[in-house]
Amino acid sequence: MADNKEIIPPHYDLDAKWDACLDLTVRRFVYSSFAGAFGGLLFFRSPQTRWASIAFGAGVGIGSAYTECSRLFDGPPTKLSLTKGSEAPTQGKFPRSSAII
User: Fold this and answer.
1) What is the chain's alpha carbon radius of gyration, rounded to the nearest angstrom?
2) CA 62, CA 32: separation in Å to the nearest integer?
3) What is this structure's pTM?
């Protein structure tokens, strides 16, 4: 018998993308919260600053997961073309080759 199941290209498989993003978000949230808790225990004495370091770590984790997931859904960001030193405009009116006498 022929297999009638269609194969979805990875570019259009939204279920796999959502699963990967959810997994990435949970992992980065938990790991960065633990890093914030460890840093808070190591560096701070008051409970308020320890909780603040945990919240900061959680925010960093969620922010990095959001960036990675937006890159996963939208594709890689377009690269900006930066002018190099040789392509920078000259200050004189004449091109360099005609300015040399």
Assistant:
1) 25
2) 9
3) 0.62
Structural domains of the chain, count: 1
- Which structural domain, as residue segments, surrounds residue 18? 11-74
Is the pLDDT reported for residue 77 higher than 80? no
In a domain, 47, yes or no: yes
Number of H helices, E strands in the chain: 3, 0
Q: At what angle do helices 47-74 and 14-43 cross, to 10 degrees?
A: 160
pLDDT in tens, 64-73: 999 999 888 8
- The two structure tokens encoding residue 91: 């200050």
Which tokens in the block code for residue 57? Answer: 């770590």
Tell me, what's the pLDDT at 73? 82
- Phi/psi region, residue 75 (left: phi>0; alpha: psi -120 to 50; beta: rest), is left
